[in-house]
Structures
1.
Amino acid sequence: MEWTVQAIRGATTVSENTVEAIREAVMELLDELQAQNQLHPDNIISALFSVTPDLDAVYPAAIARERPHWNRVPLLDVQQMYVKGGLPRCIRFLIHVRLPEANSEIHHPYLREAQGLRPDLTSQQDPISAAIAQHSHSHQL
């Protein structure tokens, strides 16, 4: 079987800067990542998480390490660059994975208010939600 290396992007937002809110959002985002891509953690090469400056209650990587098999994945947290008018309380990831070449279709999970960041990658959502998310994001810039 031939394998290929792919990068998967994703993002979500949290309602408040608490360990509980961040844990809920990170777990939801990683559940979507694994389900949408039929991905097992053994196929993850590395994961980079970024958070906006208004999130400092816990590291997303620490939460990811709580998941089965994620303790063997190299993980790194960084702070997202501040941009005036940017989406607040946002967690993003960039994950490099090994996938069978025949199964190279990638799904990039963008959840909650982060759907407006990349509407071109959030085809899983219904058209009304996509339009609302895009409209909301365009007014923040």
Note: The chain has one domain: 3-113.
2.
Amino acid sequence: MKLRMTSLALLALIGSAVQAQDTIQMGAVLSLTGSNATVGEDVRRAVALAVDKVNASGGVLGKKFNVIVEDSGGNPTTALNSARKLVSVDKVPVVIGEYSSGITLPMAQYLVKEGVTHINIASTSVKIRELGATSFNLIGLENLGNKFSAADTWALGYRKVAMLAPNNAYGQGVAHGFKEEFTKLGGQIVSEVLYTQGQSTYRRELQQMSRAEPDAYIYTAYGQESAVLNREAFELGLRAKPWYAILLSMSLSDTPAAVAQGQLGMEVGNVYGEAGRAYQAAFNAKYKEGTKTSYTGYAYDAVLMTAAAMNKARSTEPAAVQAALKELGKGGYVGVTGPIVFDDQRQRIDPPYAKLKYDGKVVPR
């Protein structure tokens, strides 16, 4: 009996190995559970849609293409373990993700150390630039985003603002960068609060900000925590003043429409041109609803660009894929988020941004 079980296990391993040989794979670490689960699931859908697109176009190197998705749980340790599994067990040459900069940075540092290609699709900390030679970035980082949001809020007529952000790598970067850019324009930050994530209430922080009597509230927050912040601000009467969200779709992804109504904000650009419109139509058709955040397009582009790089390199070896990605990034690869051109540090040049408002859903203004 023991011999029979051993044989069955051996057959299973052989079958798994044969299947792996017949399939070209890459990896993704996404926040499928935790405070950013709404964003993570939205991005997972885009990844699945991209896989469908690649396979409908002939796959990669004549084989079926697949993305192995692992859950970060919204936790840096879990994300790191997921990345280790993708590298050591699944042997993938490319990993995309995560979402929060505080999770992405240690995970990506591990991938770079292992020589595996990392593609950033959502994190905006300027420290992303420092990850190293095997990391590529598709999205606008804080230095550009802060300049855009400061100019936008100034143009809206806000002069004395209160600032609210999470007390992590991302939030600290936004708070510092926005303040620097806004004060250059002549604006004033009359209250600055970095909140601790995971609290059941933020009334104390909100009341502290309101005492400064700002013209407007500038904030950024993750989905489920933002829902608490927005509800309590609404209950405290703070919505009598304008609320402006940096990364609006992220900040409102879990907030009820009645509470979110009328908020303004900015966001990384989501879709562009004919390719973007076709992507949105395909997403709507497959999932019977539109995207909930602006990060899906970046994940979609990352998957398609990886498949294109593998086909261009005629290889799945990380170094060959990285060289092909650089070549694609020289010629202006056209993705659903627009033309993708890399600088010599593998950072996207001139990433898109958008001015948005919430009117039943997040729409352009």
Note: The radius of gyration is 21 Å.
3.
Amino acid sequence: MTVTGENLQRPSENTVAWIFGQPVTDVPQDLFIPPDALKVVLHSFQGPLDLLLYLIRKQNIDVLDIPMIKITEQYLHYIAQMEAYQFDLAAEYLLMAAVLIEIKSRLLLPQPENTEEGEEADPRAELVRRLLAYEQMKLAAAGLDALPRAGRDFAWA
């Protein structure tokens, strides 16, 4: 038996939940849901770099020239929403927020005229390097995920 791409279900924006591998798009009207049972999540991110990359790409910002004030404010706003629901997951994001604030503060300080060779002129350079490496790995993972996989896309005869 061969499973084709038509039989596969892909997540959509209208999907509320997954039950037995099938997407559910409507919530039944007679369903009782305890007040704290459902949480609204705007987007799910794989980690702090994923959120940061999303914010940068959403606004079509060049990764090599990140406006730290705008990105940091948006990042902190997302973390404030997350903290109310998932404090344990927010810790990694708070660490990245601290890095963003440090970079922002270093950009506001006057730059010394003589910079040593060991010190980088732009404090964003390390963050840019990490973001580009993360994006490269994310694209490679998406490419690998697109390859046919036994048991998911086809069955062995």
Note: Confidence is low (pLDDT under 50) at residues 1-8.
